[in-house]
Amino acid sequence: MFSIGFIVGAMIGGFVAIALHCMVIVGKEEDSKWEEEQTTRNEEKQDKKHTED
User: Fold this and answer.
1) Measured in Å, how far apart are the chain's first and last C-alpha atoms?
2) Rounded CA gap, 39 and 35, in Å?
3) Which ranges of 1-53 would DSSP assign to H, the alpha helix?
């Protein structure tokens, strides 16, 4: 009985670890996309200011 519980616990723990790692990876990608969008927005604003002057 202990071995079955150990195996089930290891499977659940492994699944949780993989899920958390995937969340971290997706979060980092979203963060880099957000930074890229902010950079392009700032560049567009600067371009508009230069063209208006």
Assistant:
1) 78
2) 6
3) 2-52
